[in-house]
Amino acid sequence: MADVPAAVRAVARKALALSDEELAAACEETFFVAGGPGGQHRNKTATGVRLVHVATGTAVTATERRSQSQNRGAALERLRARLELLGREPKPRRPTRPTRGANQRRLATKKHAARKKADRRSGHD
Q: What is the mean pLDDT of residues 105-125?
């Protein structure tokens, strides 16, 4: 999520400040047959909920409950979590360099390996 444009990040932060009703109003809500365990009630009725936050294009679904209203609540929670991730500003990376001691240890290990190989070569002649 580091390559999110600043405008989308700002929209996501604004959406997080909205109440559940306002956030749901800012989304396209579709219902679908969820299927799976839960019996005939779940398999014949449209209890699955898909929310698409239009401003950011973020989509979430909830199908685990038999009740459409419970799935709507779960989808709103997921949408808030996704918008929170979307609105988070990544920490800038700072390039680091190896310490002098780390360089010396690395070179010492390489020299040790080179010596072992050289000893093997001289031992076969």
A: 89
CA distances from 69 to 53, 65, 92 (A): 18, 9, 41
Tokens 């600043």 belong to which residue?
Answer: 6
Average model confidence (pLDDT) across the chain = 89
Give the Å distances, CA to CA, from 53 to 37, 57, 85, 100, 112.
Answer: 28, 5, 14, 51, 59
Domain annotation for the chain: domains and CATH numbers: 6-87 (3.30.160.20)
Tokens 């988070």 sit on residue? 88
Is the confidence at residue 69, as pLDDT, over 80?
A: yes
87 contacts 9 by C-beta, under 8 angstroms:
yes
